[in-house]
Amino acid sequence: MEKASKLDPGSIESKDRERFRRMPSAAPGGSGFDIATLIPLAAADDRSELIRAVHDVYFEFIRRSCAEDRLTFGLASVFAFAVLYSDSETRERMRCRYLIVDEFQDTNGNQLMISMMSLKEPNLCAVGDWKQGIYGFRYVSIENIRKFGERLRKYRKFLDDGKHGRVASI
Description:
By secondary structure, the chain is mainly α.
């Protein structure tokens, strides 16, 4: 059985073969390359093409989701934040005097900032039980309820830096 720490040179793209040939671990006629030598190379590798490809795929996913009226919960949440954050007229029109967020342990930072931007006055009531958080896959942070005051200060500063008015009073 071949060791898991070896890489088959035949699986390497041709443009990379010359770089690997110059590596100290590439012995002539050897059966592979030492992974310990490849890891630093992989970490420093130019990933701009990969990043562009991921961007293009994700952008197309968002475009099709919008075109087909099939927004995910995450996209709807990001769009809500983007609109409230960037459009003061919409933000003013949507603000409410009181806001109660139930199951607050299942909110993420984005949802907390949406809540803060939705307030006319500092009347946010967060209801929840930190022992019941179930939505970790949505980047939910139980810390939103366990460190409620600290998070409010952190996000208030972020929103104040963006000049979103009235957030400082929360």
